[in-house]
Amino acid sequence: MKPRVSLQDSALRSGNFSLRIDPVRSEDAGLYEAQVKYNSEVHTCHVELGVITVTLSQSNPVVENELLLMSCNSSYRASLTETCWFHNGHLGPTSRTFCSSPGALSILRPAMSDAGSWRCQLRYSDNKIISATYNLQILGFDGPTNPVVYAAAGSAA
C-alpha cells in the first residue's frame, strides 16, 4: 500500500498508533490488525475498514446535456434497502427529471445547476446508514439565456 499509508511519528510518543491511508481505495476494505510491543507486553487491536465509493459514467467534469449515471456502492455486507441522493444538502429529485435505481442516480440532461455537492445515503436491512459525498463539476455554458448582447460603441464587450 506504499506510498499511500503512513504513521504519525509525532503521535507515537503519546500512544497514538493510527494508520493513515490516503487516498482510500475500494480494495482497502477489510479487517486491519495492529500490534504494539512495549517492553515485554504486546497489545493488539482490530479495526474493520468499510469503504463507500461514488463513481460517474463519465469523467469529472461532466459535459452539460450528456447522460450521467452516478453510482454509490459500499463494502457493507447487509442487504441494501434504500438509496437517497441529496444535492447541496437537499433531498433529490428536484423539479428536473431524475431516475433512481438502487445505489444509482441517472441525470438525463445534466445542467450547470446540477453542479455541487452530491451525497448518497445508503440504508441497509439492519438499519445501518452510511453515506459519501461527491463534488460534481459540470462543463457547460452559464451565460445569458438570450444569445443577443448589446454593447455601446467604443466600450468593451
UniProtKB/TrEMBL annotation:
What SUPFAM superfamilies does the database record attribute to this sequence?
Immunoglobulin (SSF48726)
Q: Which domain of life is it from?
A: Eukaryota
Gene Ontology terms: cellular component: external side of plasma membrane; extracellular region; membrane raft
Record keywords: Adaptive immunity, Cell membrane, Disulfide bond, Glycoprotein, Immunity, Immunoglobulin domain, Membrane, Repeat, Secreted, Signal, Transmembrane, Transmembrane helix
Q: What does this protein do?
A: May function as a ligand for MHC class II (MHC-II) on antigen-presenting cells (APC), promoting APC activation/maturation and driving Th1 immune response.
Q: Which family does it belong to?
A: Belongs to the LAG3 family.
Q: What is this protein called?
A: Lymphocyte activation gene 3 protein
Give the originating organism.
Answer: Oxyruncus cristatus (sharpbill)
